[in-house]
Amino acid sequence: MTDVVKVAEELVSAVDGIDWDGSEVHRCRVQLHEAAKSASMAELTRARDVLVERLVRSRVDDADGVAYAAIAAGALVENGAPPRPLGEVLLAKMPAVLQAARRYADVCLADLPPDGKATTNEKVTEVDGRPIELALFRSHLKEDRGGASALSTLEIWTLPTVAALTRDRELLVRAASDDDFRRAARALASSDARWLDVLLGAVLDATWLVVCPMEKRAFHMRVDGLVSNFDLHALVSDVLIEQGIRGERNPPDVIAFIRGDSPTRSTDSVSGSFQFYTYEAGEYDWSQKGHPAWHWVWGEGRPETVPFFRGMRTLVVGPQTMSRSWSMPRTFGALKCNVSVVRELSPDEVRDTLEALRSAANAHT
Q1: Which of 62, 106, 304, 334 is 20 to 30 A from residue 256's alpha carbon, by CA?
Q2: What is the mean pLDDT of the chain?
Q3: Could you tell me the end-to-end alpha-carbon distance of the chain, in angstroms, rounded to an integer?
């Protein structure tokens, strides 16, 4: 029996029961991380299986420390163990965990004063921008230990779920199309589960319409794996410049890093090349000196919120109105993303599209 498998088995025992031993769990986690560094793929896989088998038996109402078995399995996946078995069990278990956490949060939040301000520094967590302090958290334990456990370990459940889903595209597609899972994650978008909500909102293998009214050109583009509008701006801009739309191109290694094709890049900064707008900017007279700022697609937003036009999320491309740049940390290191041209619309299609955009924008206003 290898060290990493032995430690996994010890961790499985340590998380059992309501009064699970936190110090023993910590010891096992530290040793497991260390053992994983020198373990073979077979050893990592067997240790992962030990932890996954424990997760299969888990129940929210047990109120035990099994979340730490999940995050330990996530660490093994990040070290190279195949993600599918962990992702499968978490896809099955996480909706109930999220629902229980939301349930307990609601009970606690109902007891907060109207201003929702903390009175001490003993904060257990924060939900919907409102702190839940230790005394308040403990006051409802007898009513719902399972919910309390789920809420207090929400981030510990979320991290391995993200680790597994970002490494298995089929599972991510299934998760993103699971309405119960998405609703449960969205209900905790402002909590320790926020990154799960972001991930489940990823745009996956979708066709977008990108219209350049000043150049009288338009494209259908495939957008895949995107969760950030900053990445959307960088990748769509790069494709447009490749198609001959004039703009300042970022270094190839920067674009490769954003796509997840390279672990390094020459700079941490991305330069803007264009200004992107929603389809409602279709009525704008681009000969004017101003710009329809009220229809910006903000970099701080998410691609899933870009509105649809004719069944496709649509970007209207205008000239850059100011020099813009932003830093470039990848949201999810293991999630690859890409933008590519499916086809360019014909001149007749572009004329029809521009007219339809004007009509739709006028109707919208």
Answers
A1: 304
A2: 93
A3: 69
